[in-house]
């Protein structure tokens, strides 16, 4: 099933991201994932990452249609922030190690 982001609705501090699920020959299925915006701030995650996080949540759900509306929880956001921190640490370590340079080749004699 292919997920298409269709926008969001916001009431107070809760943003509900809307998605359509499209599969060949099947009717379109509508999904909604709610997220408390305070959790984004608390976990230092940009609000622009919301649709991607919700799409991952829908993709990983066993049967998103059966669950009705899903919610992006603090655990979801904390896991994302942790994974992002680990990736940044790996990049920093790779930069610190620097590229492996070969010793200069001496010019041929003669």
Instruction: Specify the overall morphology.
Output: elongated
Oligomer: single chain
Distance between the amino and carboxyl termini = 68 Å
The overall pLDDT average reads: 86
Q: Hey, roughly how much beta strand do the residues contain?
A: 25-35%
Total strand segments: 4
**Radius of gyration based on Cα positions:** 22 Å
Helical fraction equals 40-55%
The topology string of helices and strands comes to EEEHHHEH
Based on secondary structure, the structural category is alpha+beta
Low-confidence stretches: none
With strands numbered from the N-terminus, the spatial order across the biggest sheet is 1-2-3-4
When the domains are counted, the total is: 1
Description:
This protein has 110 residues and is an alpha+beta fold. The chain has one domain. It is 41% helix and 27% strand. It contains four helices and four strands, in the order βββαααβα. The chain has helices spanning 37-42, 50-60, 64-67, 74-97, and strands at 2-11, 14-22, 29-36, 70-72. It has a four-stranded mixed beta sheet with strand order 1-2-3-4. A hairpin with a 2-residue loop joins strand 1 and strand 2. The model has no long low-confidence stretch (mean pLDDT 86).
Topology:
Elements: E1 2-11, E2 14-22, E3 29-36, H1 37-42, H2 50-60, H3 64-67, E4 70-72, H4 74-97
Parallel strand pairs: 3-4
Antiparallel strand pairs: 1-2, 2-3
